[in-house]
């Protein structure tokens, strides 16, 4: 079974958005910085998320993205589906050509597992994840790292400015 980077990054970015939903629109640059996902990749993912009506974009200064509905109403499986990703445990991608064009002995087992995983992820909302203490702890650590990095950069700029006077 595999979930590609696209699916993982989409869920991570949506969870970041849900964690920061109370602060207004969230810029993709901020998600990029906190999560270590390239901005151009996020732009591609969010275009798909917007087309699937999971997020809305806000233009202009102070703009960014918001969840299109409550975090309780957005489930992990919807996010994965929105970016055209699937959680598939079969080698044939569910097309029954697993053994020289025929169905392999365990094809139905792996198809059933794929369905169970999708059902499991359909039962987990972004709000469920936000409510987990471990998730909030990681988010706090990420915020502190970004803030410390910005403070260090600001001090460096101040030293450079002072030395050029």
UniProtKB/TrEMBL annotation:
Q: Which residues form a coiled coil?
A: none
Keywords, in A-Z order? DNA-binding
Which residues does the annotated region (Disordered) include? 142-165
Q: Name one GO molecular function term.
A: double-stranded DNA binding
Record has Cell membrane as a keyword: no
- What would be one Pfam family of this protein? Rrf2
Q: Which SUPFAM superfamilies match?
A: Winged helix' DNA-binding domain
Q: Which GO terms describe its cellular component?
A: cytosol
PANTHER family annotated for this entry?
HTH-TYPE TRANSCRIPTIONAL REGULATOR ISCR (PTHR33221:SF5), WINGED HELIX-TURN-HELIX TRANSCRIPTIONAL REGULATOR, RRF2 FAMILY (PTHR33221)
Q: What's the protein name?
A: Fe-S cluster assembly transcriptional regulator IscR
Q: Show the taxonomic lineage.
A: Bacteria, Pseudomonadati, Pseudomonadota, Gammaproteobacteria, Oceanospirillales
- The gene name reads iscR
């Amino acid at each position: 079974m595999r979930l590609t980077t696209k699916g993982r990054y989409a869920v991570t970015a949506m969870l970041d958005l849900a964690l920061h939903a109370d602060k207004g629109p969230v810029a993709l640059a901020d998600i990029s910085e906190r999560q270590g996902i390239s901005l151009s990749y996020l732009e591609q993912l969010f275009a798909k998320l917007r087309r699937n009506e999971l997020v809305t974009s806000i233009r202009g200064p102070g703009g960014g993205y918001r969840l299109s509905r409550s975090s309780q109403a957005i489930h992990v499986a919807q996010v994965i589906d929105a970016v055209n990703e699937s959680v598939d445990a079969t080698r044939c991608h569910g097309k029954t050509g697993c053994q020289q064009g025929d169905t392999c002995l365990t094809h139905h087992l792996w198809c059933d597992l794929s369905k169970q995983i999708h059902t499991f992820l359909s039962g987990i909302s972004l709000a469920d994840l936000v409510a987990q203490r471990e998730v909030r702890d990681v988010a706090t650590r990420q915020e502190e790292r970004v803030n410390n990095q910005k403070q260090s950069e600001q001090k460096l700029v101040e030293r450079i400015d002072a030395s050029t006077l």
